[in-house]
Write a structure and sequence with these properties.
The protein is mainly α. It has 5 helices and no strands. Helices cover 85% and strands 0% of the residues. Belongs to the exbB/tolQ family. Pfam families: MotA_ExbB.
């Protein structure tokens, strides 16, 4: 009974997962662009701000990149699992296409994993870049202050 209800959710398909990953990709891209603009513009006012204020400004929204970088592969994997379950459920119903239907479903499902990685990899790279840039900016500022 419960399994049948869960399977009805599975039959929705991989599309909702892909839409979530597309949204995450757009948000991640927006955060990366916004952070690059902030890093470019803050250079002028570094001497006027305290180190905690600089850190607060520069670290803003980096949690989004970290969260997306860590979770996007799992969301993609979830989509893949849904797709594989759907493919096997189709096969169990005695589809006239048999193995071809399953292979097509599995290859379609793997797109979700690829999409998850597509979101995660740039997010993690950007996050690490910004964290290093913050560290170097703060060290430079502290050296100038002393």
């Amino acid at each position: 009974m419960l399994t049948e209800k869960l399977l009805s959710i599975v039959f929705i398909g991989v599309d909702p997962v892909l839409w979530i990953l597309i949204a995450m990709s757009l948000v991640s891209f927006g955060v990366i662009v916004e952070r690059l603009l902030v890093f470019g513009s803050i250079k002028k006012s570094l001497n006027e701000l305290s180190v905690p204020d600089i850190k607060l400004i520069l670290e803003k929204r980096l949690g989004i990149l970290a969260t997306f970088g860590n979770n996007a592969p799992f969301i993609g994997l979830f989509g893949t699992v849904l797709g594989v379950i759907n493919a096997f459920a189709t096969l169990s119903k005695g589809s006239e296409f048999g193995v071809n239907a399953v292979m097509g479903g599995i290859s379609e499902a793997l797109v979700a994993t690829a999409a998850g990685l597509f979101v995660a990899i740039p997010s993690v790279i950007a996050y690490n870049y910004f964290v290093r840039k913050i560290r170097m900016t703060l060290l430079k500022r502290e050296a100038e202050a002393s």
